[in-house]
Amino acid sequence: MTALDEIKIGGMGARRRRVEDNRFIRGRGNYIDDIVLPGMLHMEILRSPLAHARINSIDTSKAWDIPGVRLVLTGEMMATRNLAWMPTLSYDTQAVLATDKVRFQGQEVACVIADDPYIAKDACEAIVVDYEPLPVIVNPTQATADDAPLIRDDKENQPDNVIYDWEVGDRAGTDQAFERADLVSTIQLHYPRSHPAPLECCGSIADFDRSTSKLTVYMTTQAPHIVRAAVALIAELPEHMIRIISPDLGGGFGNKVPVYPGYVMSILASILTERPVKWIEDRTGNLISTGFGRDVYLQGEMALRRDGKILGVRMHTDADHGAFFGDAQPSKFKIGLMHSAFACYDIPTAHLTARGMYTNKAPGGVAYRCSFRVTEAMFFQERMVQAAADDLGMDQAEFRRLNFVRDDDFPHRTPFGFLTDSGQYGKCLDVGLKAVGYQDFLKQKEEAKKRGRLLGIGISTMTEPLGAGNSREYDILGIKMFDSAELRVHMTGKAILRTGAKTQGQGHETTWAQIVAHELGLPAEDVLVEEGDTDTAPFGMGTYASRSTPVAGAAVAMVSRKIRAKARKLAAHLLEVSEEDVDWELGRFYVRSAPDRGVTIQECAMAAYSNMPDGLEPGLEGNAYYDPPNLTWPFACYIATVEVDPETGVWDVLNMVAVDDCGVRINPMVVEGQIMGGLTEAYAMASMQFITFDAEGNCVGSNFMDYLLPTAWETPGYELHEVVTPCPHHPIGAKGIGECATVGGPAAFVNAVLDAIKDTGVRNIDMPLLPDRVYEAITERHDVSGAPPVKVDD
Amino acid sequence: MALFEEIAAEPSEPVPVRRVTISVNGERRTADVEPRLLLAHLLRQGLRLTGTHIGCDTTNCGACTVLFDGKPVKSCTMLAVQADGHEITTVEGLGGASELHPVQEAFKDEHGLQCGFCTPGMMLAAKALLDEVPDPTEDEVRWALSGNVCRCTGYQNIVKSVLSAAQKLQGQSAADGS
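^ inputs. structure came back:
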């Protein structure tokens, strides 16, 4: 007998078809709006049409008169239960229902609970609110003006609209580097506000059972255990009497991390009506009130030696956080992991200053397919690097290669103090350049120029920190960022695995079983994976910031190893030898001196329940809490080639090559799916997708007619390549991957378009590179800003 | 006819209703509906066919796509009364009782879905294309699916799925013909 073929049992490296697809392709998914509970009522929210206004009065009497209306809630009523305000994930407060004034367009003002959603919507329209408009702020410059109105007059010790003023890095050392510089290159840009816009909006069904005092909440959440803790604190309910169930999620991308006012209202409504209350957000509600991403103004400069060596970097960010500071991010860092910028380059010193401002815009600052502002960091990095290469007159690929951290220089301390541990940056770049045909393209570009055609090539290379913790440095509201897995192997060798993560399309039900197959030799199809129910799953921090594989995935491997350690004792007992004489090959223990004598993992499982040795605890179950020693550092090289039409400003992607090194791949098919999805969100942000505001604070981009998402028609095709540098500290050598392409991709597209129009002298066009912006840059020969307020045609 | 129907405690003004008869997945269904009821809501809440999803309310995303007399429509902006006398196919009617439709198989085989929310609408739009154009080009597939948004996959594997389903269907019809 020999070891099992790992690919055949669906282990690591298998392109295993996804088990969750069996229900999704039949329309048998179980998303929040598919769930119906007996006696369920429906909730709709009335939102503010104004961005900043005092509320003089709210008259709900006509809403109460509509047949079928069961409850109307306002901020005043929430306040009697101490629920008018709730804490955010960044130690701020956020209004659940407005009491004093509204602070952004779309803010929750009242809600109606009725027999059906049509009645609830009718009743919302019957509520009369008397608003007194106030001056509106839609960007950080307005927020810090001398005569700026105070947005957060509800807070004590908040004299202005500044939330924080923060710095990291070595100011003095960086100043010295700039004194020694031969050349200083600068850049200034705005990373526009974007919205994750998962295809399924947010929603909840709260079900409070007075007879047991148990509150069950079905909720679109990427982090059910954090929500349970938050509900316990906000609603002052005992934590063991709260059950959060996150059903199938129609995408998340960070949008479903925060706790939203709608969830809290539905919970109070269920407590008051003693009926289940369902709230399903509509698309406009989703886009104008829930967690956005980005909206940061970045500027900086790079100190350069004439030969191309980078000596130091200065960065400054002004972040527009909206009306409430609701960033979902580790509490130690005010602007997320912005200081992970330049991690792949060997730069001796850097300094970052960051300010955050309140404005009359929706709160959020979620990590939209991003590890906490890493997207902005890497975009700035690669735009800065491009500008520096241009200023030096150096080839953009060679400039990057010259400054890369070398393969033999790990572990490496980044300029802002992170520790990277592995990578083959130069090799990834080589693979990318070869795939795109770099030298040939440069020739084509020159020839095309003679015929009046504008071709361009853009490179983006980056390593980014994925998989927070470790718990020493990473926590959210004081809860440490580890994760967990629990594995129960039944007597027939079938198993159930539960983790503290929560899949939203990433395919955990498929890939976690592959890790168990790798570690235990159980066929993957024999392992059922469940997530999302806080009554059954072990405590974990959930799925976002590409942390599932780095943290929960590691926990899956570790719990499997615990199970294997116990199975070894059972095997020794069955084989009648001492444990030291037993060896393991995939799926089987055998006697070292007599390899033919062996027992399978399934036989060990049976023995755990039917034939255990004296003194050994029965059963074959375990759990593991995994606190990673470091972040994982995947590397990516994205190269885009484009053609810009000088007559219209329209640009087309000719080719997009992606080289990703995410370490060992559990399921290459799923990894490739993540990369292609991420590249598309990168293309979206570079080309069309953004939310902006007019001077009155009206959201431009409040539905899918204005908030443009690329379809199959616009989206380019992609060519994927891989390099594998195993993560040295992860138990199976894996690194995060979900967000890499979204983080690194935008700069490749933008650099390519700017390369195509380089002769105009234009240094920057803010994303998205809409045709009119590109056309303006070409014809007016100046940089184009996309900062709000925008002009809106009447 | 429900065995029990609760009468509202407070007498309310009678809500106007209209009787509609719709063939849904080959089965004749009759219901009394408010004239303003959306087709998507009739399918989801009335008939409990929850495979039809709602993603945007404005006819842009295509999660609610169903086949209306064989043509793809967005059921979130069509009234239930407009479907009176017509044939509707939802994802639940795409495959047979036990068999999958080749489009469904192909989406699984080619990893054409991730979160699954756009998938029913995407598959129905694909089926409508393949009914008309059995051997489409990549551009034809991309154009036919351009009313359906996917936020997860980047479309490349969706396009692959549809092209693979086309081949399979053509193989089937060739085999049937011989």
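Chain A touches chain B through 56 residues (CB under 8 Å). Residues 5 and 586 of chain A are 8 Å apart (CA to CA).
thumbs up if we can close this ticket
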